[in-house]
Design brief:
- The protein is mostly beta strands.
- The longest helix is centred in the middle third of the chain and has 13 residues, at 65-77.
- It has helices at 2-5, 65-77; strands at 6-12, 18-24, 26-35, 44-46, 52-53, 56-58, 80-92, 96-97, 104-105, 107-119, 128-130.
- The model is unreliable at 1-13 (pLDDT under 50).
- The protein has a single domain (25-130), classed as Nucleoside Triphosphate Pyrophosphohydrolase, CATH 3.90.79.
């Protein structure tokens, strides 16, 4: 299974030996459509890109999809949610800037969930500035 997620590249080192490095072949991301008891939906304004978005983001190593969505929503809005049903799976073939030295990553797989607001007041984050 790890081979499905991580591609191994062989790179020649300066001294002629071979170094095996692992590079991700896709990014997995999640987002949530969060609804409160008044049937209002949470939209966040992204600070840098000037776009409105649902809370969400990249799944980090060691997280499952639900944990990632709970963490991203908390980071972006300071709100607690309950994650419901998966309603959307999509992908694209754009390239994305990797991190931790990974360079460009070719594909993003994005999963959307229905969510229910539980508690918390909106607070701005490094990524979001309006609700």
């Amino acid at each position: 299974m790890e081979r499905d997620i991580i591609k191994t590249k062989i790179i020649k080192s300066i001294c002629g030996g071979l170094i095996l490095r692992q590079f991700p072949t896709h990014i997995v991301a999640v987002f949530g459509i969060v609804e409160n008891e008044k049937e209002e939906v949470l939209l966040l304004k992204h600070r840098g890109r000037n776009v409105w978005m649902f809370p969400g983001g990249q799944v980090e190593t060691g997280e499952n999809l639900i944990e990632a969505l709970l963490r991203e929503t908390k980071e972006e809005s300071s709100m607690e949610i309950e994650v419901g049903k998966l309603f959307s799976v999509s992908s694209n073939t754009s390239t994305y800037e990797g991190y931790n030295g990974y360079g460009m990553i070719p594909t993003k797989v994005i999963m959307g969930f229905t969510c229910t607001y539980k508690s918390g007041e909106f607070r701005e984050s490094d990524e979001t500035c309006l609700i």
